[in-house]
Amino acid sequence: MPSTPPKNRALCTTTSPNRQLARNKVTKAELLDIALSGLRSHEIKKAHELPPNIQSAIDFFGDASSASTRSAPNGTKSEFERQFPRKTLSEISGSASTGRTSLALKALARATSNNEWAAWVEISDAFDPRSAAANGIDLNQILWTRAPDCKRALIAAEYLLDADNLRSIFIDLVSQASRSKHRKNDLAIMNNPSIWSRLRIRTTQSNSAVIILSEGRIVGSFADFVFHLTDSQPIFEEDPVSFIGLRGKISHYRHKLHPGQPNLSWESRNGKTKTYID
Amino acid sequence: MRIACLLIPQLPLAATVRNHPGLERKEFVVISSNSFQEEIIAISPRAYNLGVRSSHTLEQALFLYPSLLVHKAYEEELRSAKRTLLDVALGFSPHSELTPPSSNYFASEASVFMDVSNCQNFFKNEICLANAIREKSQELRVPSFVTIAGSRSSSLILARELAQTQSSTTRVINPGHDANALKYIPFELADLNHELADRLTLFGFQVFNDLRKVSKSLALRRLGKSSQALIDLSHGSTKEVKPAISKDSYFEESQDLYLPTNLLETIELYLINILNRLIKRLTSRRLVFGDINTEFSLDSKDICTRQIRVSREIISPDVLSRLILLSLETEPINDLVSSIKITTNGRSVRNFQTDLFRTSAPAPQILTTTIHKLKSLCGPENVGSPSLIDTHRTDLYDLQAFGDRSNILPPESYTLPAVRALRPPLPAQVNYSGGSPTQIRSALANGRILRCAGPWRITGTWWSQKEKFAFDYFDAWTEDSCVFRLRINFYTKSWEIDAIYD
After folding, report:
1. Which of B384, B444, B501 is nearest residue A177 as measured by Cβ atoms?
2. Contact B476, B421 (CB under 8 A)
3. What is the rounded CA–CA span in Å between residue B86 and residue B245?
4. Looking at beta carbons, which residues of chain A come within 8 Å of B419?
5. Among A268, B153, B245, B482, which has the minimal tally of Cβ within 10 Å of its Cβ?
6. B223 — phi, psi (to 5°)?
7. Between these two residues, B242 and A273, which has the higher pLDDT value?
């Protein structure tokens, strides 16, 4: 068992080595070596040695103060572009306090860091400008729409798709407990697959990326990318007792046309976000 | 000094044709009120050829020609036409001003003086300049007679003469030849007061040349001190200050609807007509729209107003009318509309230079239309750009118009995960012991509190009864895996959950 990992190899472990890894010349034996070396959940330090699709996810959900906040040079794709390409429908889902809003705001920060305009449509009036600004979002670049219900939120999204050239459209469909009177109608719309089918078609015809925030996976197979957040836990610091962050897991699903990615663990502590491969 | 005068001899006629282009080739008269006994204030050329005169009452005119069209003059229409004439002048020279209203015979005319002393640098000669001014006035649908002379009075009198004789539409008097040009012009065109006009008649002075034949002192002795300006004019020695620089950027256009309506399609047609006129006026002065205020006069004599903000790049009447209609759809009017007035303050054109490194964004027209559609769908108070307020309260924020770039406050050094705000805060029942909450019951989280941090106290604006606040905040984690921000309001003595960490 090697005491230090060999050079030119990703410092990561994986529970299910897939074809993508094999294609990148990481053999099963090597993966086993790494797994046995006790490096499970080790922070990625040499991320540039990873296969490109894994690299992008780790970069993207990693610390915003690192290289990821750089705007893309001309002619190259930004990190936001790689993670949420134009003409795609994505979903970030999870129950309360799993970190879905943190991840969505991180994505929004990446979108606005390139001087691109983004739209945030929501049904619960839950967007917190103070928290958004602290997450590095340029509020001047955000078109915020508070729709009274799910139906009007989706119509608003369609108007925004018509506007064209609006880089990203976030639709927050997480319903708050205080909105119980609309909840029944909202659920009826969310459970109607034809709506997501139409939204996906409309998205592919537009020049924008649509990202949906939800409590459960509502878009289903119509989503090109799904980030499902689970197993969350708060991080408390002792003496004095203070809440400093959240940690959880991201299950990453992709449409059959796109290559898969491994699942990630995620931790946000004192405003810094780290991502690991399970 | 070189002064150009733009003259509209019959302002009510020009204003009517400007607002209702279909009347241009029709027999019509303009009246000032709805009374049959009212005198006619303007007659179209075709009606004049049929024998209708300004001394007739409406009843007499209709007796002469029963199918005569009658239009009532509106103050707003006249004002808009007058200001359009000023816009024509301001498109050439900033030293332009409207003349005060004339009396008696010239009461229905409108004129503008403009200083054209330095305009020769931009035109081949003053004749070309006069023709350009005339063309611009026709383009803005206020065709006027243009004269250029050495003083205001001579240019105005010569313009009146042109309007009477209809020999030409422009006339340029060479510098120093004003007196010669006025030589055979009768004093009636100078719009003199009755007393001076009587004295001139008494001493047999009929045209300007008669005054030139006698010495200045003798003429002044005979005619009195009030004749000084007239004597100077006839001798070509007038001294005047040039018109002041006009910084007026207020634009107003209105239209009365013959038949009051509440059909949006009909209103749209009128809106496009008004906006077309406004756009022509603004572009003639190289300005663009500011905030657009639209006033709808209703049949019930009420006035309904709508305000829209538009990007500087939008100068399409179709887009603008659509935006106004969207504002009407958002808050419908439940009465018939009898007239529409649109006002705006012109803004300078943005000096915007695009470059290869700027990221692409929606076209301003499309973006503005989208924002107005969203406002129509979700309410105007629910669409915009979020902005921070300089306060310690965590739940206060502001909503600005998108594109204003008004967020100048630096973000706080905030190191916690993102929060989802609960507006209004969710009431909760809390068991409190040992300095921290131990159990909670609410619509969001229930059960034992596993970990809790706090309290973090925030108080402020104690001097204001309405705005004072005092909270103790706790970050709590319950056994149902919810992490939230709990607070106790010291003024209402109640527990609330105001945000979820997510």
Report:
1. B444
2. no
3. 12
4. 101, 128, 131
5. B245
6. -95, -15
7. B242
Identify the CATH class of B250-348. alpha beta
Min distance A8 CA to chain B CA atoms (Å): 34
> Which of B363, B395, B377 shows the shortest CA–CA distance to B471?
B395
Q: How far is A27 from chain B (nearest CA, A)?
A: 38
Q: Cβ contact (<8 Å) for B443 and A164? A: no
Residue A32: phi and psi, rounded to 5, are -65, -40
Torsion, CA B433, CA B436, CA B440, CA B444, rounded to 10: 170
Q: The whole model's pTM is what?
A: 0.65
The widest CA-to-CA distance across chain A, in whole angstroms, is 61
| Residues of chain B found within 8 Å of residue A147, distances taken between Cβ atoms | 377-378, 382
Residue A14 included in any domain: no
pLDDT over threshold 90, residue A157 = yes
Name residue B45's amino acid.
Answer: P
| DSSP β-ladder status, B96-98 and B69-72 | unpaired
The pLDDT, as a whole number, for residue B219 is: 83
Q: Out of A209-213, A263-267, B169-173, B360-364, pick the least confident.
A: B360-364
ipTM of predicted assembly, 2 dp: 0.74
pLDDT at B113: 92
Name the E strands within B299-336. 303-308
User: How far apart (Å, rounded) are the C-alpha atoms in residues A77 and A194?
Assistant: 32
* Contact: A144, B360; criterion CB under 8 Å: no
Q: What is the count of structural domains for chain A?
A: 1
Residue A70, in any domain of the structure? no
A277 against B329, higher pLDDT: B329
Give the CA distances from residue A195 to residues A188, A199, A201, A216, B344, in Å, rounded to whole numbers and listed in that order.
11, 6, 10, 16, 42
User: What residues make up the domain containing A100?
Assistant: 79-277
Q: A194-217 burial by CB neighbour count: b if 16+ within 10 A, else e?
A: ebbeebbebbeebebbbbbbbeeb
Angle, helix B75-90 to helix B126-139, in steps of 10 degrees: 150
Q: Locate B47 and state its tokens.
A: 């009606």
What CATH number corresponds to the domain at position A85?
A: 3.40.50.300
pLDDT tens for residues A54-100? 555 555 655 444 433 334 444 445 566 667 888 899 999 998 888 88
Question: Which pair of tokens denotes residue B242?
Answer: 């040039």
Q: Chain centroid to CA A278: how far?
A: 16
Does a structural domain hold residue A33?
Answer: no
Q: Where are the domains of chain B?
A: 3-234, 250-348, 384-415, 419-501
- What are φ and ψ of residue B403, in 5° steps? 100, -5
Nearest CA in chain B to A270: B415
Residue A61 maps to a domain? no
Q: Report residue A118 as tokens.
A: 């983004």
Name the residue facing B361 among A97, A117, A128 (closest C-beta): A117
Of the given ranges (A173-177, A198-202, B50-54, B255-259), which has the lowest mean pLDDT? A173-177
Sites in chain B below the pLDDT cut of 70: 34-37, 350-361, 404-415
Q: What is the mean pLDDT of chain A?
A: 73
- Cβ pair A178:B426 closer than 8 A: yes
pLDDT at A14 (0 to 100): 36
